[in-house]
Known about the structure:
The protein is an all-alpha fold. It has helices at 21-25, 32-64, 69-94, 100-105, 112-146, 153-179, 186-189, 213-239, 245-255, 258-275, 282-285, 287-303, 309-316, and strands at residues 181-182, 207-208.
Amino acid sequence: MFSIPCTQGAKCTMSELSLNPHQKAHFNDTKQPELWGCLIAFLVINDVVIAGRLWGTWRSIGNRSRVIAEDVLIVLSGIFVNVIIANLMVATHYGLGLHIYTVNSRDPDYPSNLSKTFMHIWITMVLMSGFFVCIKMTLLFFYKRLFLVANNSRLRIFWWANFIYVVVWFFGSTSFYLFQCKPVQWYFIQYFERFPNKPVPGGMTGQCDATTVHHVALPLVFSLISDFSLLLLPIWAISKLRLNKSKKRGLMAVFGIGLIACFLEFARVLILVIHTDDKDDPSYGVAIFLILTAAEETTAIHGYPILLTKFALKVWKVY
Length: 319
């Protein structure tokens, strides 16, 4: 995902751990308070929302006597988001949000903490595809049930196109993050190689491809396309209803909550491509990108309109 050379790809030596005046001036710079504050808030919010939905699901199952796809997927998404945020917290503990030279200077066994930081970032990025596919599938099955997709041939084709796209995106995105380095663990083990006096664990050798921010942004761009397509599906269905304009606008506003997640996805791409330092100081530079990642996941959890279903169905009865 992000390569971490010491000085534009050169190997590091003991002398290079000596801080220059610029590094000394910025040694205590940190984004960790922002990381801890956001991650704890997102974790609490997500768990409260997921607990509420589990309670609602339990009550609804009692009424309909069966488990539907959305029930399983929303539980899986809750598990994913908790594991992702937990990994970001562990990464922050090891040094995420600090400058690389600060992490190494504070680590007597450098670059062990740096390696552990990016091991947990790597886990986060791999699991991210699983989380988003659960959310996207939750929305697809919810829309299928609510809008009676099977009764409209064009809507059915559009639904299946979205379904296939999401499945292909999931496998493509997960494979990208899993196999960008050979062997896969070389992504976070490689930092030992940059210190001649530090043995690489297991004497391992490897290489990484497609680790620039432009490469990393590709799965996000394809995910953004899917998000906008998922947003169009309910808007298209609502536009075909025999309702007055005010009720149509009300329904579109309900399902348009997904726009916030789309904007956050777009912001993540911009931050990644324009603002993220993926070469010299990524442990500090990727912090904002990862905060936005957690923010988008929280918004996606809220974007699933299960809590608004009763409102939607009341308007739907007018159809």
